[in-house]
């Protein structure tokens, strides 16, 4: 999005492994990306934890496919993730999304107050992250896959389509 805020790491992320990494510690550490039009891949290669470089380097990646599928791949995880300190930076893995609304402030009419609404989060069990492991997220079917409201309503989706009077359409 076009809005950057300090709560970004708490509410909006695609994180195979979020921790206090220091990519500038070693000349061998890199963060690379590739986009071939059908998959966007980000790889953290030989990155070290800040102040804990003696634990070894981490290598992992996130692959975002145009189909909506997301794959986290873990090549080198030198220590159990549960042993990584969250004192300086949150330690987590998963997906989260939110949106922000600017509301008029009741105290100062010409100013606006930011309100962040987190609407979905998938947290991975970090005890299961290890070397040579992978996690795959597969998107659920949605109404957007159908060409008309009729085909959506008559399909066997995993949710109930309902009529929205405000939008004058099925949701």
TrEMBL record:
Coiled coil regions in record: none
Keywords: Membrane, Signal, Transmembrane, Transmembrane helix
Main localization, broad class: membrane
Membrane protein topology class: Single-pass type I membrane protein
Domain of life, source organism: Eukaryota
InterPro entries xref list: PLXDC
Membership in a protein family: Belongs to the plexin family.
Annotated Gene Ontology cellular component terms: membrane
Record protein name field: PLDX1 protein
Subcellular location: Membrane
